[in-house]
Design brief:
Strand order of the largest sheet of chain A: 4-3-2-5-6
Structural class of chain B: alpha/beta
Largest interface: A-B, 51 and 65 residues
Number of strands of chain A: 6
Shape of chain B: elongated
Radius of gyration of chain A: 35 Å
Oligomer: heterodimer
Shape of chain A: elongated
Strand order of the largest sheet of chain B: 1-5-4-2-3
Largest sheet of chain A: 5 strands, mixed
Number of helices of chain A: 4
Chain lengths: 194, 216
């Protein structure tokens, strides 16, 4: 296919006429194939493979009167607060006035928020009255402070998806909780630097 | 003695066919590749386990950069025209509609919009622009934008996307969401990078068992 017929078409030359040395026109195509496949691999890898995904978030309607809003059972509520520098704090039920149930957790590693969520979930399941919907009372309230960043919020919402928490809400933090988070944040950073 | 002689075959293979295939594939990939345009607004998005691919047309994208500036991108040119016209009539801004249609993103207060549109496209860089003011509930021009967009998209579906930088602070996100809420937009999607569910988690078990109910 790639070689041309160079046999000269049978044209006879007279005696004494020097024949020019016939060069083969056959080209070794292997390097060209190599190059071709190299470029193919390059283009395959540079093509955008990972398209960004979208995470859905549905906000609650603020205009609903407080008496029409969903009431959560105190025993099934887990409130998570996100502070500065990836610090997480949580409490179950209502915050005690002395703040004794205000605990800290982390995003991963030991004492991770995932374990806390799963523990709470199992706890709610074990106390469920309605066996058809054992997680009915389980609600996670996420309260980001002004110091935390966008990634933390997404990570926390992601955590809800990972642990299949059906009911969760993004709520503004109260002043009281904000103060507690601030104090704990300050403590965590000073103890961390020592 | 009478051993049949096998005719010697050449080991050189004709590479032409292979070469053809290689270059055919090559040209295919070259033609189908779309190079990522250099982004004027640098944002690194967080990752999530969400599996749904972000819509790539008819979207309205709100971007929050790491220093909390807010930018708006409208995909549909027709809607852009509607938005520009309605801003011109209601607020008397005198926006150059053609320039507005061409602009890839909006990143200036309403009062400085004309000056923003006068900057050549390639010189509009996210870090040098003021962004749309979106400080708190009193000074939130994004509310105005969302209101105008709501009108422009009346009757058709608006894919509202929010793209935030990893390091942007929560108040910026809160203010953007406040602007959405004011216009009774309760549904939006956040652009993230895909990530696999951690092994052993409930979502992971669910996806392993073939449950298709992941799209929450």
């Amino acid at each position: 296919m790639a070689e041309l017929d160079t046999s000269g078409g049978g044209h006879k030359k007279g005696p004494g006429v020097k024949k020019g040395k016939k060069l083969s026109t056959r080209v070794d195509l292997t390097p060209m194939v190599d190059l071709g496949f190299l470029l193919i691999t390059f283009f395959i890898f540079t093509t955008t493979m990972s398209q960004p995904t979208a995470m859905k978030l549905i906000l609650p309607d603020d205009k609903v009167k407080p008496e029409d809003q969903n009431k959560a059972k105190e025993s099934g509520v887990l409130t998570i607060m996100i502070g500065a520098e990836n610090h997480i704090y949580y409490y179950e039920g209502q915050l005690k006035p002395d703040g004794s149930n205000f605990l800290s957790a982390s995003f991963n590693g030991e004492n991770s928020i995932r374990d806390v969520i799963l523990k709470k979930k199992a706890d709610v399941r074990s106390r469920a009255i309605d066996p058809t919907n054992p997680e009915k009372d389980f609600v996670v309230v996420i309260k980001p402070t002004n110091e935390c960043n966008f990634k933390n919020v997404i990570d926390m919402l992601d955590e809800m998806a990972i642990n299949v928490v059906k009911k969760y809400a993004l709520v503004d933090i109260t002043d009281n909780e904000n103060e507690l988070v601030k104090i704990s944040d300050a403590n965590a950073t000073t103890s961390g630097s020592n | 003695m009478g051993r049949a002689k096998l005719p010697r075959k050449s080991t050189a293979i004709d590479m032409t066919a292979m070469c053809d295939v290689a270059f055919l594939l090559l040209s295919f990939f070259i033609l189908t590749t779309k190079f990522k345009p250099a982004e004027a607004i640098a944002v690194t998005t967080p990752s999530s386990v969400a599996a749904k691919v972000a819509p790539s047309k008819d979207f309205v994208l709100v971007t929050i950069t790491k220093d909390g500036k807010v930018f708006l991108t409208i995909d549909d040119e027709q809607k852009k025209e509607l938005v520009a016209n309605s801003l011109n009539t209601t607020r008397n801004l005198g926006i150059n509609v053609a320039a507005f249609k061409k602009a890839n993103f909006i990143g200036a207060p309403l009062s400085g919009l004309n000056a923003f549109l006068a900057i050549p496209e390639e010189n509009r860089k996210g870090d040098q622009l003021p962004g749309i003011p979106c400080k708190d509930s009193t000074e939130n021009e994004l509310t105005i934008w969302m209101q105008v967009l709501n009108e422009a998209y009346a009757g058709s579906k608006m894919e509202l996307l929010l793209k935030g930088d990893n390091l942007s602070k929560y108040p910026a996100f809160k203010n953007v969401v406040a602007a959405f809420k004011k216009n009774e937009i309760q549904k939006f999607q956040m652009v993230t990078n895909p990530e696999n569910a951690p092994a052993g988690s409930e979502l992971w078990k669910k996806s392993m068992s073939g449950d298709k109910e992941l799209d929450n």
